[in-house]
Design goal:
The protein is an alpha+beta fold and about 110 residues long. It folds into two domains: about 1-75, Orthogonal Bundle (Helicase, Ruva Protein, domain 3), CATH 1.10.8; about 75-108, no CATH class. It has helices spanning about 1-10, 20-30, 40-50, 60-75, 90-95; strands at about 15, 55, 80-85, 100-105.
């Protein structure tokens, strides 16, 4: 948390957030997957600075920047696309037939 405040003070920004709230937000970042210590704190500070108008940083700005960081750290979906095609019939006839056969092709 000190590092965040140092980074922001270098940019002449003052954090207008209660210390305990800032600590709780910082802990969420630390607990995130692939937390990169100082590098993540620097990125968080840059995002806060980019969203700040003036020199006083609001709680909502700190929160928005944190949510942006956490969204970047969430694992991306690795579910492959599935292409479904009728086999041997038109799509209209296939949709109305109860005993239809489908071919599934995984696109990876």
């Amino acid at each position: 948390m000190r590092r965040l405040q140092q980074q922001l003070s270098r940019k002449s920004l003052v954090v207008g957030v209660v210390e305990s709230a800032l600590e709780a937000m910082a802990q969420r970042l630390v607990d995130a997957p692939q937390f990169a210590n100082g590098r993540d704190v620097e990125t968080w500070a840059k995002r806060i600075a980019n969203k700040t108008k003036g020199d006083l940083v609001s709680k909502s700005t700190v929160q928005e920047a944190l949510e942006s960081m956490l969204a970047d750290k969430r694992p991306r979906s690795t579910t492959p696309s599935v292409k479904v095609e009728p086999q041997g019939r038109s799509a209209t006839a296939l949709a109305s037939a109860q005993e239809s056969h489908w071919t599934f092709e995984l696109l990876v």
